[in-house]
Amino acid sequence: MTPAGRRGEIGLSELHRIVVDASAAHTVEAQIDRLVSGVHQAMRVDVCSLYQVYAGTSLKMVANRGLSAGVAGRIELPLGEGLVGKIAFERMPLSLAKASRHPAYRYFPESGEEGFEAFLGVPIVQLGQVIGVIVVQNRDERAFSEDEQTFLITVAAQLAPNLLRMPALSDPRSNRADRRMQGIRGAPGKSLGTLHLVVGEQTLQLIEEPLRRSTEEEVALLQAAVEAAEREIQSAKQRLSQRLSADSLELFDFYSLMLAGDQLVAAAEARIRAGSSAFSAVRATVDELVAAFELIEDEYLRARGEDVSHVGNKLLAAILGATGPAPGPVENVVLLGDLVSITDMAAFDPEQLAGILCLQGSPLSHTAVLARSLGIPAVVGIGPVDHLVDGSRVVVDGDRGFAIFDPAPATLDDYRARIADEAAYQAELLGNKSLPAVTLDGFKVRLLANTGLLADVRPGLARGAEGIGLYRSEIPFLSSEAFPTEAEQYDIYRELLSIYHPLPVTMRTLDVGGDKQLPYLPFQEDNPSLGWRGIRFSLDNLPVLVTQLRAMLRASVGLDNLRVMCPMVSSLAEVEEVRAVLKSLVAELRDQGLDVGMPPLGIMVEVPGVLPLLPHLKDRVDFLSVGTNDLTQYLLAVDRGNPHVATRYDHLHPAVLHTLADICRLNRKLGFDLSVCGEMAADPVAVVLLVGLEIQNLSMNAYSLPRIKALIRGLTVKRCRRLANAALKLGDAGAIREKISKALRRDGFSALLDR
Ligand code: PEP
Ligand code: MG
How close is the Cα of 533 to the center of ligand 2, in Å? Predict the structure, then answer.
């Protein structure tokens, strides 16, 4: 349906046209303006206005077509008042043939909206929050058709991410010159740093291209990038030649051929000679080639389009590398990418990293988990951002979940003061490092550290960890280019066990799958969290499990502080199988003269279906560790990695608390050594409940240890029991958090809660 069609009829193709047109604009403001103008034209209405929720208290008109020029920006309506306010408040669309008859109708003279009768308004909602309202109006009385209502609802859904990026949405108290982008809290803490863009599909589209130099310089830049990419491909091929089949290695030859051929490099050079920079020439050539591959019918050949983008990204990264800031000691690096991966993080020393910013992602992603364990502030799910310049200044506020790009001097001063204040608070907490985590009435809790990289081992010890409660062994697997050999694994495990000796170290077997994809063994699944994960993957790839367990056992010789734990267990058969493999390996190594003993074996309790199996595990395992991250995800059917449902994910949900209470009740008879190692163990409110349930082992990221210890030392188990019982009677996670937070504030723990 075109704008010339009959009023009241409107279709998806129209919407598509509007969205495509809007996305060609270069700024968020211009995109929004084009969307509003497109709707005004397509719906053939007299007025189309877009309002944005401002500072949580009012609605500001940010774009308009049909009213007098300049009216947008001047109109601000109180939230909850008038028709627009009512829509925002009730989060429901409103369609009226004669608006002036509605009891909520209020005429705001400054709006210039006098005399428009037909009214249709739709709330714009992002992650469960109303962030704006879109309204269309006609002068004459008329009813809007269902088609029109559906159309506007669809437009509202398209508008949400753009509206969220409008600077006017920021808090009025913040410095207006700042470019503040709201996301979701990924890892706590605040930092100041230098932006380093991780080359990914989305970030490449965002990166401001380097200034164009002379044609010959740009051509030289392209050639240097080709050589750098070729060197990288050859060295990767060589590194993997022992481990990959000849078939897989052929892929590298394909990459090299592409770099040597005309289609990519010669075509890019032609573009440079026609006036493009090397960066935009490569980007345009790759886009063109990928589009051509998408038209090929043969599925195999079509998939080669991915290889073109892969090689193209390598070239672009090399060009950026050559044009970016001069290499040198890199400090205070803030990594920004679509999804910064654990591999991207592992390319730096943790001390070099000041922050992580992900345009996508969620707080329970493993990137966020790793950032927490390294004490690096992180914000995830930021959404699209324009005009990012590698090397520019950025503030990461992981406590409040936003980033500020190009902060103003006053903001920088403010953050410097806050960072210093936080450092002083942490130093004060470290005073309790050698004291036990014991409540005022004598209930002792063992505080353990979660780790995954050798780099995050020492922070745990430095903060008084009494052992490692969870070593995520997959992290070295994710950050290398092929399965690490037994010798490579041995070195890592030996170092870890030695550093902590004689304290216990619980090593979890490989937990890949879900959001942890091995770069060298990618597999596609429709439902990865319910798929080939954890122990399922290891048992189906027995050589991988055997190599890992052998390395662990050999590494424990003479130290005897190893505990082995299996992730994602959901059946007795899995436990039996692992136990049998472990036993036979112990026997084999002993035959070879090594003094290895059978280590304690445990399982993660994270699949809800494992609960009824616990009594049957009595003589099969030695300990249990509750993985509340996955347990919450599976109990609530809420994907821990999906930002759209992130606000629905809460480990204080009654389902999680009741399941934990059931586990504790069962375990009173069974007597397993029981711990909690999910993120819940680092949440002060949750810790009150876990202590109330008398859980004696809590394993968490190293940076939370001093805080949680300070909390435990200031409570009595008696009070925690009472609070846990009260919480178990409530039916809502929000109410539970409020109740416990209030109690903690009364007890003087406000500083601890507010950080
Ligand atoms: C968990 O699921 O709670 C857990 C600790 O493991 P991971 O976060 O690595 O899945
Ligand atoms: Mg888990």
Answer: 10
